[in-house]
Amino acid sequence: MYQFFVKEEQIQGNRIVISGQDVIHIKQVLRMKIGDELAVVNGDNRQDTKEYRCEIQEMLEDEIICTLRFVKEDGVELASKIYLFQGLPKSDKMELIIQKAVELGVHEIIPLSLSRCVVKLEPKKEAAKLVRWQQISEAAAKQSKRRIIPVIKEVMTLKESIRYCDNFQVKVIPYELAEGMEKTKEIIDSLQAGQNIAIFIGPEGGFSETEIKLAMDAGIIPITLGKRILRTETAGFTILSWMMYQLEQ
To answer: Following CA atoms 156, 159, 161, 164 in sequence, which dihedral angle do they give, to the nearest 10 degrees?
Structure first.
């Protein structure tokens, strides 16, 4: 079942209109036809987690007109909102991180500019990167049948990110000098529905001692991910997977 995101105004009672690049994709790539079924999700409202099952009624030059068949509510989204604060990695690793984090259920991704980040984005480059990263998030959300498109926020400093998650119920930062796995297991086991969860991941060089202290002073708990040193992209996937497993039980 192919899924597409639409704006709120495109859901007009039992009539749903698909426009933009999705029209080309439906016609030329998927080669769908009148009578075929597809799924539509409200991409504007992050509280609307319903899936609208539709049937293609008309195929116009720049619009696909669909008729609503039924609404499906099946709890695809995680019971808590996970925010990934990711230190900017080298090359195109951020694209992989966004893609897989969206598949694993992340709610929002916040790129971090840290002292050991090799990549330093200028304002013009950052704007272009954010557009590209948001496109990757949308594609991954479609592929994994998410009900929302996770937002990729503007790059923040560590201090800005600490203020951003000030009221979150759970805040963790993987750190190689943290306590053993018992503490990590305790935090994972204690996760509850409805919480806002912050995960801080450093770049290739990790967090500096100053950054770790700043985070700990703000109530962010250092945890270990095991005895091996993980790459920046692997660290995020690992803890997201553990949290996803716990929250989907």
So the answer is: -120
